[in-house]
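Appendix B, Record 12. Input sequence as logged:
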Amino acid sequence: MKGSIKGVIFDFNGTLFFDSDKHEEAWKKLSSEIRGYPFSDEEILTKVHGRTNKTILEYLLHQPISDQLLKQHIQNKEQYYQQSCLQDPANLKLADGATALFEFLLDRNIGMTIATAAEITNLTFFNEQFCLDRWFDLDKIVYDDGKINGKPEPDMFLKAAEKINRIPSDCLVFEDSESGIAAATKAGIAKLVIVDPADQESKYRTHPEVDLVIPDFTKIDTSIFY
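Logged structural output:
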C-alpha cells in the first residue's frame, strides 16, 4: 500500500484554471497565421496540451526556431490568450474547491507547488489574477523557462519535487492531459489525480496510472493523501 503523501504538484492550465478552450483558440489562430490553417483537434491533444511553446512552434515550423522568432510568436500567442481570458470575467477564476484544498495542504504541512508549461508572461498574469502567492512560493513554481524539457518528459515534475524538498515517490500530481500522465509516470510519482470537468465520461478512467478522476476540487476525497 502506498504511503502518506508528503508533496503535491499541480498542473495549472486545464487543472487549476479551466482555460483549455482559450489556449486552443489562441494556438489555432497562431497556427493559421504561421502555416495557413489551424491546428486540428487531434493536434491540439497530441502536440499542444502540456507541451512547451518552443516544442509546439518547432512542430508548426518543422525546424528549429531562433530565440528572436520564438519570443515574437510567444508574445502574439499569449496576447490572444490573455485577451480571451479578460473578455470572459465570469470564468476567470480558479477551479471550484482549489483554494480550500490549498488551505488543507498548508495546514498539514504537505509541500506543494505548480509545474506548468506556461511561460513567465502567463505565470505573472495568473498571479495578478489569482494571487497565487497567497499559497505558493513563486520561486518554487516550475514553468517553461526555455531550458527545461516539457511534458511528456518527466523533467518538470522531477524539478518541482526537488523544489519542495520531496522525492517523487512521496508526491501526488494533479493533471489534465495525456502528456501530463506520461510525465508523471516517468517521474515515478506516487499518485495521479486527473481533473476533468466531464468526469463520468472521462477517457482517463481507463488509464491504469490514474488513481482518481474528479470534475473539480470540491470532489476530492482527502483520504487519497494518506
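The CA atoms of residues 33 and 159 lie 34 Å apart.
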